[in-house]
From TrEMBL:
Listed NCBIfam families: PRK07046.1
Lineage: Bacteria, Bacillati, Actinomycetota, Actinomycetes, Kitasatosporales
Keywords: Pyridoxal phosphate
Pfam family, one: Aminotran_3
Name recorded for this polypeptide: Transaminase
Family: Belongs to the class-III pyridoxal-phosphate-dependent aminotransferase family.
Organism this protein belongs to: Streptomyces olivaceoviridis (Streptomyces corchorusii)
Protein origin, superkingdom: Bacteria
Residues of the signal peptide: none
Cofactor(s) named in the record: pyridoxal 5'-phosphate
Length: 449
């Protein structure tokens, strides 16, 4: 790669994005009453001077207000893994809200037990409760873990992602000890008071931290995702389970992003045995929904504690948690859209995507790598692929990333804005994947010219 070409190429693609999207640029400029000019500040994490504004979306396609259609491999950063507005979810939401009436009434519906049973079939956890986000599910799981163990600290992996959970915003510093993750906003206290940290794929580091005896639970993704895909090495996850049991800590699997591994996430695909499992985003088909599952043993231990107010003070997902609308959407998504058969097709497409990216990398002998987790694929600007979160963070190349994102978007392809993740949905086609392969190859050719 001729690195000297990159600034000019990035400037060209930035100018092209501004030329192509005058309505989005104008909408962003006049958004004076929004904090950061967007409804949620994460939306500023995009290549270019402004975000594209949504007009509509269906299946694997997004249209912006300037009239451009895109093949969508971002899919709402996993929130739309079922595709945009899938028909069964649309019908279920209309039936619940317009025909039956009522979205939230502080009353259960029969859909909830169906969803709980299906989550048990997929993930193996015996008891389930609902939230509106995976962040909320993680918060409730942490509280329950502290309650049942009597221990104060939560252990996470460096550069993990568990939403805005305060306990998760810790990384390993240069000396190997825990320190606050750079940029953390408004931390309530020194994160080392609440948390411990170990590198992913580092069993020795994990055991060192567990040996203090104050860890209530290890909260982890079975594969890191939001810092780029970091896959577990052989024996690592088995070792994590053995160590947590040896030192009396619970194991919480956050499957919110790793749900891409299959209909039961990594937990089913790799035969894992967590004590709790959290999930959100994709299960509602675009309607806010989250859930946390407990093993039968843990549920019985908690329900047997007469000193815990589990009705009101603990494990509560918020007033809207488990509402009729989100539960109806979750049932439709799991029953009709993100089925076992759909996951098989999505994984096959992701294999095709991975092969196309690898061919482009190898054609130019670039020191890059590509990793896949079921229906999710990601390329990184380093080889071999990172084995820890800290290694993955160090491989970041914002200038190169922005060029590729703008180059693809200007030619009708969207990736997840803050890294090079591509996700398949049930409506993604082979032609969609091949289009990315062709455009990606053209971008590499320009970099190599």
């Amino acid at each position: 790669m001729d690195r000297t070409r990159l600034p000019a190429l990035l400037a060209r693609e930035s100018a092209e994005a501004e030329r192509r999207n005058p309505r989005s640029r104008a909408a962003y400029a006049r958004a004076d009453h929004l904090f950061g000019r967007v409804p949620m500040t994460w939306m500023n994490k995009t290549a270019g001077a402004f975000p594209r504004y949504l007009a509509g979306a269906r299946g694997a396609r997004v249209t912006d207000i300037d009239g451009h259609a895109y093949i969508d491999f971002c899919l709402g950063d996993t929130g739309a893994m079922a595709g945009h507005s899938p028909a069964p979810v649309t019908e279920a939401v209309h039936h619940r809200y317009a025909e039956l009436g009522g979205a939230t009434a502080m009353l259960p519906t029969e859909d909830a037990e169906w969803v709980g049973a299906e989550l048990t079939r997929r993930f193996g956890l015996a008891r389930w409760s609902f939230s509106l986000t995976a962040t909320d599910a993680n918060r409730w799981a942490i509280r329950l873990a502290r309650a049942v163990t009597g221990r104060p600290k939560i252990l996470v992996n460096s550069y993990c992602y568990h939403g805005s959970v305060d306990e998760s915003l810790i990384v390993t510093g240069p000396d190997g000890t825990g320190t606050a993750r750079p940029g953390n906003v408004g931390a309530p206290c020194d994160v080392t008071l609440t948390s411990r940290v170990a590198e992913f794929n580092d069993l020795a580091g994990l055991e060192r931290e567990l040996a203090y005896g104050d860890v209530a639970a290890v909260l982890m993704e079975p594969a890191l995702t939001n810092i780029g895909i970091v896959l577990p090495e052989p024996g690592y996850l088995t070792g994590v389970r053995e160590l947590t049991r040896r030192y009396g800590a619970l194991l919480i699997n956050d499957e919110t992003h790793t749900f891409s591994a299959g209909p039961g996430g990594c937990t089913a695909a790799w035969d894992l045995e967590p004590d709790l499992l959290t999930i959100g985003k994709a299960i509602g088909g675009g309607i806010p929904a989250g859930a946390y599952g407990l093993s039968a043993e843990l549920a019985d231990r908690l329900l047997g504690r007469t000193d815990l107010d589990l009705v009101d003070m603990g494990g509560v997902g918020g007033t809207l948690a488990g509402n009729a609308l989100s539960v109806a959407a979750t049932r439709a998504t799991l029953e009709h859209v993100l089925t076992d058969e759909a996951f098989a097709r999505m994984a096959t497409l992701a294999e095709r995507f991975e092969a196309g990216v690898r061919a482009g990398i190898e054609a130019h002998r670039l020191p890059w790598s590509v990793s896949r987790l079921g229906a999710r694929t990601e390329y990184r600007f380093t080889s071999p692929a990172p084995r820890t979160g800290t290694e993955s963070a160090a491989a970041s190349d914002p200038e190169l990333e922005d060029f590729l994102h703008l180059y693809l978007a200007n030619r009708g392809i969207l990736l997840t804005p803050f890294h090079n993740m591509a996700l398949m949905c049930p409506d993604t086609t082979e032609r969609d994947v091949d289009t990315h392969t062709e455009v990606f190859a053209a971008a590499l050719a320009e970099l190599a010219a």
